[in-house]
Structure prediction request, 1195 residues.
Amino acid sequence: MTEVERHGYDVVVVGAGGAGLRAAIEAREHGKRTAIICKSLFGKAHTVMAEGGIAASMGNVNDQDNWQVHFRDTMRGGKFLNHWRMAELHAKEAPERVWELETWGALFDRTKDGRISQRNFGGHEYPRLAHVGDRTGLELIRTLQQKVVSLQQEDFREHGDYEARIKVFQEYTVTRVLKTADNGGSAADDRVSGVFGYQRESGRFFVIEAPAVVLATGGIGKSFKVTSNSWEYTGDGHALALLAGANLINMEFVQFHPTGMVWPPSVKGILVTESVRGDGGVLRNSDGKRFMFDYIPDVFREKYAETEEEGDRWYQDQANNRRPPELLPRDEVARAINSEVKAGRGTPHGGVFLDVSTRLPAEEIRRRLPSMHHQFKELADVDITAEPMEVGPTCHYVMGGVEVDPDTASSCVPGLFAAGEVAGGMHGSNRLGGNSLSDLLVFGRRAGLHAAEYAEAADGNRPVVDQEQIDAAAEEALAPFAAEGGENPYGLHQELQQSMNDLVGIIRREGEMEEALHRLSALRERAEQAGVEGHRQFNPGWHLALDLRNMLLVSECVARAALERQESRGGHTREDHPAMAAEWRRVLLACSLADKPVPGEGAITLQRKPNPPIREDLLALFGADELKKYLTEDEMPDAEAGLPPQRADADADKKTENGAEH
Amino acid sequence: MTTETRPPEAAQKAGRGVHSPGRAQITERHLRRDRWWLPQVLTAAGLLLFIGYSTWRAFFGLSTSYAPPYISPFYSPCLAANCKAGTGGVDWALFGGWWRLSPALIVLIFPLGFRLTCYYYRKAYYRSFWSSPPACAVAEPHAKYTGETRFPLILQNIHRYFFYFAIPVAGILTWDAILAFRDPHGRWGHMGLGTLVMLVNIVLIWAYTASCHSCRHIVGGRLRHFSKHPVRYRMWTWVSKLNARHMQLAWASLFSVGLTDLYVYLLASGAFSDPRFF
Amino acid sequence: MSYEATFRVWRGDADGGELTDFQVEVNDGEVVLDVVHRIQATQAPDLAVRWNCKAGKCGSCSAEINGRPRLMCMTRMSTLPAGETVTITPMRTFPVLRDLVTNVGFNYQKAREIPAFIPPQGVKPGEYRMQQEDVNRSQEFRKCIECFLCQDTCHVVRDHEENKPAFAGPRFLMRIAELDMHPLDAAADSGLDRKKTAQEEHGLGYCNITKCCTEVCPEGIKITDNALIPLKERAVDRKYDPLVWLGNKIGLRRG
Prediction:
C-alpha cells in the first residue's frame, strides 16, 4: 500500500488561476471546506499574463453597450460554433463579476465620472474591457488571492485557524482524478472521489478525498514551440478529464495570438498585448505598407474601415467611422501576418512591424502601455516610443476543453467540474480578446457554486477512494525513476513542441497532420520509457516526465480533431479546405480516451456530436443576411419570425433591451 | 510547500543573518563583485568634509561672518547679543548677553536637526557611517537591530518639527539674499557675484526644504481623496516632482550653504574683493 | 553568435550545499534564466529552479545573481561583465528547499496578518465611484508581482532572523499603505487604524529607509518614497504631531 498524505475536503479545486480561485471563493462562501491546489506558488498563475482587460458590457464608456451586443460579438468571434448558452450566460453575468471584484479591493482604471473605464479591443463593437493599464490579469489574480486571504482571516477570527475552511496547497501537482471503485459496473456510482498527486517540494504523494473536483488548470500551450504560455500550461486538466472518462470538445481550435515577440530567440512567443493596436498601433510589412486592409474577410467587410484615413479617424470618433482592420479578430490578424511573412515581406527576424511610436506621443505610450514599454526595453532593448516592435503569431489559447453543462460547469463524470480555459464550448472556434478573464469569473463562480451544491447533496453518501487506484497512480508516477538510462524528458518535450509547431500550427494540411499523429504515437511510446536522475525532492526533470503524458494526450486530441474537420474556421485553418462550411458548424468533435491504447495506434477516439441549435430569441439578435453566412438552409429561422435582413445593431436594440435581466 | 516559517529561537545557534540555520549555506557574507562600497565612501567623505568645515566656521568664524552686504548663512538669524552689528539682517538677541559662545551654534541647531532627521540623510549616514546596511545584500556587522523603534532613533519621527522651523529659517535667509542687493554702504540697486551666490543658495535651500518628505505629506500626501482638494493635489504633484530629486537637492544645498559661507569668509578676510555687476 | 560561459550555481538543500561550476553555451539575446534552463536540459536535469512566465510578470524566478537580488528572467546576459563567472544563489533571507528554490512561506504568513480591504457599508457592487487621481497611488503598489526580492534584500530580516516575527517587510508595509490610500477602504469606520497598526503591529519602525527595497524592485515601484515614508508620516500624524492634534481638536482637518 502506498504511503500518502491524506486530507478530506468538500470541494477540491485544481488550479489557482482566475477560474480556480473564483470557484474556490464561491464554494467556500457556500460553507464548503475547500482545497485549492496549485502547481506553482499562490498568485503566480498564468492569469497574471493577461494584459488587455475583462470584457463586460457595463456600458460605462458607450452606453449603447449591453449583453446582447456582447453576446453577438462573442458568437461572431467564435464563428457561431460557440455553445450559445455559455455565450449568453457569459455576456449576461460578466458585469456583475467585474463589479464584485471592486468590493474585494480591485482598482480598475477610471472614467471621468469615477466609473470603471473600458477600452476597445479586437472584435468588440464598443469599448468594453475593464482594465488596469496593461496588467489586468495581475490585478485580477491579486484581487482573488487577497479575497481568499480575507476569507482565511474570517476563519481565523471564528475558528482560530486560518485554514479552517479554505486551504491553498502550493506547489502540489495532481496526476489523477480518483473515482469510486468499480463495483460491478454500476454506472450510478461511477463518480469522483478525490485527487491524487505529488508535492513538488518533497516529492511525497498526497490524496485529497472529496466528492467534487473542479478542474481549472488552464491551457495546453506548452505543447507548442512558440507560445505565450508558461511552463504550467501542459494540459493537465484536459488530460485528467480524459483519464477520468470525460470528453474534450473543439480541441482543433487553437488560438494563435497575432502579436508575440519574435526577437530575441529566448523570449520568442511572449505576448505583445492587443491593446497596442486598440490604442492606435498599426501593423506594417517590410515595405512599410499597412497590409491589414488587404485581409478583411467578407463576413466583416461592412464593419471595418477601407482606407487608412477612415481607420485613423475611428480612434477619435468611433460613432461615425469604422474601425481599422488591425482590430479584426485574432485569427484573421494571425493568418494575415503569417501570409505576409511567407510572401517574403517580413522583418529581419521573421515577423512584421507593429508600430505605435509614430502614432502616439512618447509620454502617452509610457502611460498607456507601461508594461509593454518595460518588456521591450528590458528583454529586447527596443524603445517602443521610438521604434517599431517586431511581432509574429504565437500559440496563445486553446478554445477546446472539457465538455461541460453550460449552467453548472459539470462534465459528464458526476462530481467533475471544469471552468476557464480547460472547459470547452464558450468561445467556439475563436476567442475574443478580453473574453477569457470574464469567462474565468463567470464560469469559475458557476463551477464553484454547483460543485458546492453537488458536495452538499453527496453529504450522506460520500464517495470512498479506491486504494487500487491510488496504488496504480503511485506506480505510474514513479515509473520515470525505474527507467534505467531512459530518454531525457527535456529532449522529448522539445521534439513534441517542434512537431506540433511545424505540423499542427496555424496553417494545417492533411498529410502533415497524419505525420504528426504518427510522430505523437512514437513519442508516446518513448515517453513511457523516459527516465530521470536524482531523487524526488523538487526535481524538475521528474515533473516534466510526468507532464509529458498530459501534453501527448492533448496534442493527439488537437491533431486528430484538426485532421477530421475539413473546413477552415476560427482557430483552425486548413490549406486544403480553406472555406468555412455551414454543415461543419453543426458538428462538434469530441475526444475521449480509447479503451485500450494499442502500440502504434492512438490513445484517443474521436466522435462527431451535434452542436445544439441556438435558441430562437438569440438568433433574432442577428440579421438574416448575417445568419446566412453561418447557418445551413434548414437552420435558418422561419420566415414568419420576420427577421430583418440586417440589424441596425445597437441603436435599434437599445430601446427594448436595456432593461433586460443581467 | 507549506506556509510556516521557522521558529525564531532556532535562528540564534549556528550563525546569524545570512548564516542562520536553514538558509543556503554559503560561507561568503555577500557575493557582490561590483564596487558596492564606493557610494558609501563618497557619501562619508562628503559629509565629513562639510562637518569639519562647518564646525571650524561655527566656532571660529564670527569675525569673518559678515562682508558687507553679505552675511554668512551660518550666522543668520542672530539670536545672541554678540553678533556682528550693523548687518541689517535679523538680529533678535533672544539669548541676551550671557551667551559667550559663537552665535552660529544657536542657529545651526535648526538646519542641523532638519538635515539630521531628513529621510535622505538618514539613509546616507545609516549606510555610510553605521553600515546598517553597508550596501544592499551586503551583510551588516551588527548583532542586533531595532531600527527606529526605540530611543534615541525613534526621535527621527520629529522630522516635521524641524521642517516647520526650516521655513522661517529659509525665510530669513531669503531676506539676507534680498539685502545682498544693497551695496556695502546700504544703498539699494547693487548686485555682485556674492548676490548671485546668495541667490543660488537660497533657491537651493527652498528647493531642498520644499522637496522634504514631510512637506510632501503635509501639503497633500496625507489626504485620501485628491479629487476633493484640487489645489492641494496640484501642490502635492509639484512637491512630488521635487521630492524625486530630494537626494540631489540635499547635496546641492549642503554645498551651496558651505560655499556661500566660504565666499563671505574669503571676502571678509580680504582674500579678494567682490566682482560687481552693477 | 554564441559563446561559452562559466556559471557557478549553488546546489544543495537545508543540510548543506556548494557552488558548482558549469560550462555552458550562451546565445545572443539570452537572459540568465535561459542559461539555467540549458544547464537543466543538458547537464543537470534535477537542478531545482522556480519559474513561470519568463516575462517578468509573475515574480517566480527570484534569485541572487553575482550577489544581487534579481529576477533571472529579466537579467540579460549582455548586462553582466563579459567573460566573468556568473554566480547564482538562492535568495539568502529565506530557508532553502533545494538548489535555487527557497521556502518563501514567511511572505504568505505576513500577507495573512495584514487585514484585508474593508468594503464601505451601503455601497453596492457597481456603485463604486473613484477618481483616477485617487486610485493612482494604490495602483502603483498593486503593480507588485510579489517576487519578494524586496523582502529578500531588506537587512531588517536578511541580517536579523530574530526580527522576522515583528516585521512585515517592505512588500506588506506597502500593502498597508495601499489600503490606507484606497479611496473607499472603510477600515476607519470599523475601528481599524491602519497607520497605527503599521507601526505597532507590523514593525514599520524597523525600517530605516535605506532604500534597498526600491533598488531591487523589478517593477520600479518607489516603495520607500511612495509607500514607506508616507506611511511613516501618517503614523506621525497619529502619534507625534501637535499641529495635527490641534487641528483635529478644533475641527479644521478632515482627511
